[in-house]
Amino acid sequence: MDALSAKLDTKADKTALDATNEKLDALSAKLDTKADKADLDTLNGKIDNLGHRVERIEAGIGTLKWVIGAEVAVIGVILAFIKAC
Fold first, then answer.
1. CA 85, CA 74: separation in Å to the nearest integer?
2. 79/29 Cα distance (integer angstroms)
3. How far is CA 43 from CA 1, 4, 31, 33, in A?
4. Structural domain for 82, as ranges
5. How close are the terminal C-alpha atoms of the chain, in Å?
6. What is the pLDDT of residue 22?
7. Residue pLDDT, tens place only, 4-41
8. Overall number of domains in the chain
């Protein structure tokens, strides 16, 4: 009878251990998902920062184009004035 009782206790312990392992696996998967989401949020933040940086660079290039165009126009006016004199 003691052997049967010990065997039943062992089976009960294995069942409890299996249930605990399943819960731990589910918890691990949930934590991995949260970690992945946090990594994704960090990556999205970095992408947004790079997007703003590109926009500032594009604005600077546009300003530079305008300044160069204005300088060429001024040089053209000066050359026309010199030729006229």
1. 17
2. 74
3. 62, 58, 18, 15
4. 1-85
5. 125
6. 86
7. 566 656 666 677 777 888 888 888 888 888 888 888 88
8. 1
Q: What is the pLDDT of residues 47-71, one digit of tens each?
A: 999 999 999 999 999 999 999 999 9
Token match 């004035």: residue?
A: 81
Structural tokens at position 61:
């290039």
Helix (H) or strand (E) holding 12: helix 2-84
Cα distance between residue 64 and residue 61, in whole Å = 5
- The region, left, alpha or beta by phi > 0 then psi within -120 to 50, assigned to residue 55 is alpha
DSSP string of 14-76, one letter each residue: HHHHHHHHHHHHHHHHHHHHHHHHHHHHHHHHHHHHHHHHHHHHHHHHHHHHHHHHHHHHHHH
